[in-house]
Amino acid sequence: MEHTGVTAAQGFSAAGVTAGIKASGKLDMAVVVNNGPEYNAAAVFTRNRVVASPVKLSRTTVADGQLRAVVYNSGNANACNGTQGDTDAALMQTRTADRLGIEKHEDVAVCSTGLIGELLPMGSILSGIDQFNDALGSDAEHGTTAAKAIMTTDTVPKQAVTRRNGWTVGAMGKGVGMIAPSLATMLVCITTDASASPEALDEALRQASSVTFDTLDIDGSTSTNDTVIVMASGASGVSPTQAELNEAVHAVCLEIAQQMQADAEGVTKRVTITVEGTDSDAEALNAARTLGRDNLFKCAMFGSDPNWGRVLAAVGMADAAMNADQISVSFNNQVVCKNTTGVPGARDVDLSGEDIDVRVDLGTGGEGTATVRTTDLSHAYVEINSAYST
Amino acid sequence: MEHTGVTAAQGFSAAGVTAGIKASGKLDMAVVVNNGPEYNAAAVFTRNRVVASPVKLSRTTVADGQLRAVVYNSGNANACNGTQGDTDAALMQTRTADRLGIEKHEDVAVCSTGLIGELLPMGSILSGIDQFNDALGSDAEHGTTAAKAIMTTDTVPKQAVTRRNGWTVGAMGKGVGMIAPSLATMLVCITTDASASPEALDEALRQASSVTFDTLDIDGSTSTNDTVIVMASGASGVSPTQAELNEAVHAVCLEIAQQMQADAEGVTKRVTITVEGTDSDAEALNAARTLGRDNLFKCAMFGSDPNWGRVLAAVGMADAAMNADQISVSFNNQVVCKNTTGVPGARDVDLSGEDIDVRVDLGTGGEGTATVRTTDLSHAYVEINSAYST
Q1: Which residues bind substrate (chains A, B) (predicted)?
Q2: In chain B, which among 17-56 make CB contacts under 8 A with chain A?
């Protein structure tokens, strides 16, 4: 088995334990530890203005560009719990630092995922943290156990690795648009043994996120808890260039994002939408997102229905430059609409496969282009997301 | 039976006929004729930039504030059909003017609704128009037949009337978010025997639309064909004030919008969302729309699940001023979240009824407020909208 995940890079250990937060008795806490010699880090967080207590805490924690560990729990988001939520997140942090022998508790980030609005069961949380020392290890199995412990409605753990000349980037992730019984969170932890400054990590992470996690749009919803963290141990002794670092971080982010798309709850189709022929990349992204969030379009994809009229109706509402009489659309590389008019045979295109590629040219002749990954809207999505939270 | 619909006001006649556009053999063409003595009119159209040929034509037609008739067909949207679509819409207009003895064909507006991207069957269309003269009448039955003839996936015809001191406003409508086999259109025709200038009609229509049809948001989709037309015959001899006209037009628009919400395909719940406590009405509307379009929230409503965490996660992404730590939420007048924190018993609120009232206070203390009507996201919605268009 290839060594993938957060322990693939030198200088990292990980653990996953059963703390008793989940009624199912499954793994529900994890920790990823950076053993150095360097402790540089960067992070991106949810753009939602309603943020969970662990996000508030971790934003502050990572501000100095240093992290020695990240502690995770699944089964409870610790969001919308008022000041008690803040107190509980802080206790998770200090207890983890204490038990792992980390001098400054500000060097520990905290991530939670699960139901919103329920207080953390702190007895379970603390007993979980107390198990970390015995459970830590640096092999592939320990990384996989940590990846399992952050799962909520994910059906498979999500891990990635990319190896370069003497250095490695690994990652684990969970979530996005998988939501029962409550809103799900995207959590990602990226580790590398490269030597890289916090600024270099920040640039690499922002560039990669903007074209991977930020364009993975299952249902347009954004969690209160979304957090992506990258830590660099420097243990390889290699200092990649910024371009090399960007490329490698992008590679693992893309792989995790694709695994999230494939595992999104209720998915029967993976839909990749590319918009071009508008004035800027930002406008192309607006149009691709508008289409990717259109329920009529997503239902048509579920039905394998090449209903290109819904594509036009959706992009026609987007905030993007377009020539409304010269829009073209193709499904799986077959042109179905040209000059905003259907082409013969357009309704016979076969969309029965699991992957559907949609391309829209907005007809301005501009250079703007963007790609968004989404899914269909299925019965299973409704079923999963209408289940009682109680 | 109360005389409601487009023939309730003096000076109007209507007809509904079977032209053969629908394979089912149901009524599929209608006309509403203003017999004067005045012919003032106003209209609002879809904000979509991809617009159907009849919308392009009717925009021009109504620009001078005069209309003598509106011709309707269902079963085919005449959208995205290139210049042939424009030609066909123009022929619908001139043939209707010719057969009804209307001197200027620019006094006839055209509305179509149905599948996008199929050419109009002009043989059927012209034979339908040729039936109008024999089919026209001014009683309640003729209005109802016209209302039936514009239906697509509507299950009931939608009509309204409001009577004032000596004058009357009536209306018929179809659609919004009822979409199989393709994107559905909202078409509304309002008639009044008041004497009112085109400018007065325009103001009344825009004010009413902004708080009725514009805030009825079933799935966030906007059709290529949406058209709301008001015509005034002056036959009552009464000239209401602007305020009186506004109030009466609003009354019929609200009634039609409520009928649309109740009849939206796949609906099991009618959800009314009111947002307050933000800086402006526009910001409150943004937040209410963001919530009304959030699939996770809509699935929770389908499941009668008082999952207030999804409300916070949705409004947290809205473009509206908010105090993220002081948001409150109530379901059916029971507070479930205060200061962005759950209140005891929040998960026990009974949402099993068909109507759910959601109120969100964004906590800034501002005066902004807005209400949006939406529905749940149900299995039936997915079923209906994933059916093949072919």
Answers
A1: 152, 174, 185, 265, 385, 390
A2: 47-51
pLDDT in the model for residue A125: 98
Q: Which residues, listed in sequence order, are joined to residue A227 by a DSSP beta bridge?
A: A45, A187
Does the residue B366 lie in any domain?
Answer: yes
DSSP B213-240: GGGB-SSS---SS-EEEEEE--TT----
Contacts of A310 (CB under 8 A, 6+ apart): A294, A296, A297, A300, B116, B182, B183, B221
Are A241 and A219 part of one and the same domain?
yes
- Tell me the CATH number at B320: 3.10.20.340
Q: Is the dihedral of CA B275, B276, B282, B286 positive or negative?
A: negative
CB A70 within 8 A of CB A111: yes
Domain boundary among B263, B287, B303: B263
Containing structural domain, residue A125: 12-263
Residue B303 contacts A where some CB pair is shorter than 8 Å = yes
Contact list in A for residue B81 (CB cut-off 8 A) is 341-342
CB contact under 8 A, B80 and A337: yes
Number of domains present in the structure of chain B: 2
What confidence tens digit (pLDDT) does each residue in A166-214 have? 999 999 999 855 433 334 578 999 999 999 999 999 999 999 998 888 7
- Determine the average pLDDT of the residues in A287-299: 88
How sure is the predictor about B389, in pLDDT bands with cuts at 50, 70 and 90? low
The neighbour count for residue A37, using CB atoms within 10 Å, is 11
Q: Are strands B168-174 and B158-163 parallel, antiparallel or unpaired?
A: antiparallel
Distance CA A29, CA B281 (A): 44
The number of helix segments (H) and strand segments (E) in chain B equals 11, 15
Q: Is B185 a catalytic residue?
A: yes
Confidence check on the interface: ipTM exceeds 0.90, yes or no: no
Q: What part of B 156-175 touches A (C-beta under 8 Å)? A: none
| Phi (first) and psi of residue B127, to 5 degrees | -70, -30
Residue B265 assigned as binding residue: yes
Q: Does A133 touch chain B (CB under 8 A)?
A: no
The helix/strand/coil state of A322 is coil
Q: Closest to B221 (Cβ–Cβ): which among A314, A341, A347?
A: A314
| Same domain, residue pair B242 and B356 | no
CA distance B390 to B388: 5
Closest chain B C-alpha to A386 CA, distance in angstroms: 4
Neighbour-count burial of B51, counting CB atoms closer than 10 A to its CB (0-12 exposed, 13-18 middle, 19+ buried): buried
Distance (Å, rounded) from C-alpha A53 to C-alpha A68? 20
Asked if the C-beta of A222 comes within 8 angstroms of chain B's C-beta atoms, the answer is: yes
Alpha carbon distance A287, A310 (integer Å): 13
User: In which element (H, E) is residue B289 found?
Assistant: helix B281-292
A247 with A370, same domain?
no
Q: Region B19-36: what's the mean pLDDT?
A: 96
Q: How far is B342 from chain A (nearest CA, A)?
A: 6
Question: Mutate which of B386, B389, B390 to disrupt the A interface (most A C-beta within 10 Å)?
Answer: B386
Residue type for A15, please?
Answer: A
| Residues of chain B positioned with their CB less than 8 A from the CB of A304 | 388
In a domain, A354, yes or no: yes
Tally the C-alpha atoms within 13 A of residue A185's C-alpha that lie toward its C-beta. Answer: 33
Say whether both A205 and A310 belong to one domain. no
Q: For residue A79, how many C-alpha atoms fall within 13 Å in the half-sphere facing its CB?
A: 34
Structure confidence at residue B347 (pLDDT): 85
Residues B155 and B275 in one domain: no
> Is B390 marked within a binding site?
yes
Closest CA to A72 of A111, A35, A102: A111
Decide which of A199, A231, A263 is a domain's last residue.
A263
A317 and A246 within one domain = no
Same domain as A162, residue A27 = yes
Helices (H) and strands (E) in chain A, counts: 11, 15
